[in-house]
Amino acid sequence: MKKLLLIISVMFFYGCNTNPDYQANLELAKKWVQVFEKGDIELWKEIMSEDLRDQAPLYGMGEVDYATSQQIAEFYVNSYTDVKFNDPMWLPGIDTGTMTLDGSVRAYGVWTGKSKSTGRTFTLPSYHNFDFADGKIIYTGEYFDATGMVNSVGPVQRNVVVVTLDVKKGNYEKIQTLMDTEAGLKTTRNYDGCTHTEAFFNEENGKYIVIEHWESFEKYNAYSEWRLNEDPSGLVNEMLPLLVGGMNGLSIYSNNTGYGFY
After folding, report:
1. Given this model, what pLDDT does residue 160 score?
2. What are phi and psi of 118, to 5 degrees?
3. In which residue ranges of the chain is pLDDT below 70?
4. pLDDT at residue number 184
5. In what side-by-side order are the strands of the sheet with 207-214?
6. What per-residue confidence (pLDDT) applies to 5?
7. CA angle 118–258–119, rounded 5-degree value
8. What's the rounded Cα separation, in Å, for the pair 26 and 104?
9. Cβ count near 23 (within 10 Å)
10. How far apart are CA 225 and CA 218, in angstroms?
11. Domains parsed from the chain with CATH numbers
12. Which of 42, 65, 117, 231 is the most exposed place for a label (fewest CB within 10 A)?
């Protein structure tokens, strides 16, 4: 009986939403969904505040700003088709301090869609929350397994390139600083054909290891030619003095076969 009364109370609480902003905010949140269902990045720009803060779904990214959130949105719009937010449950949010309705919006649902590059499909339960200011979305939190989603629709055969740097003792921080600059691994990741990049340092053997995933080894070769011979940042030349043996401290393993994901 107590459980039944609790359920009725919750239904009454949400059903009697008197916050005057909620309905307008709910329509904005639904437009956010339409961005991905229709592949309309211009709609995203229309409804998002330039002061946006976005709790990104990708592991380790944390809270990002307007520009980074737009890049993430563009990635989904450009990478997936037939996208739909299925069986959505829209709920009004509350101010946790006063426990009163504050006009914010919450949503549960299941995303489905298909990768444009591989044709493989995904099914992804998710939760989202939205806050608003001046008729725009000013905060959004996106909670789902983004890494699992990317892996589920990825190619069966992946083109993996492994780069190792034999770092001189005491120079790891300098190497890491170079890798973290705009000209570093961010440029690698954003180069045509690179799907994602991982990197780490092993203190025991002094090796800095970069793992790159490419749409094709041909696209990697084009990147490598550019990085070694045309890159205006001169990143490689800055890096070589920090390696044991200079150029000999740089090893590249490409054209790998027999990839498996277990």
Report:
1. 94
2. -115, -20
3. 1-20, 155-156, 261-262
4. 96
5. 194-202, 207-214, 159-166, 250-253
6. 43
7. 5
8. 8
9. 11
10. 11
11. 2-153 (3.10.450.50), 159-253 (3.30.70.100)
12. 42
At residue 11, the pLDDT reads: 46
Structure tokens at 246: 């200079």
CB 213 within 8 A of CB 197: yes
| Separation between Cα atoms, residue 186 and residue 180, nearest integer Å | 7
Q: What is the pLDDT of residue 8?
A: 43
Other beta carbons less than 10 A from residue 194's beta carbon: 19
Q: What pLDDT does 155 receive?
A: 67
The Cα-based distances of 186 to 6, 168, 195, 248 in angstroms read 50, 23, 12, 24
Give residue-wise pLDDT tens across range 71-120: 999 999 999 999 999 999 999 998 888 888 889 999 999 999 999 878 88
Q: What is the pLDDT of residue 234?
A: 95
pTM (two decimals): 0.58
Q: Which amino acid is at 21?
A: D
Six-digit token string for 117: 């590059």
Residue 225: other Cβ atoms inside 10 A: 11
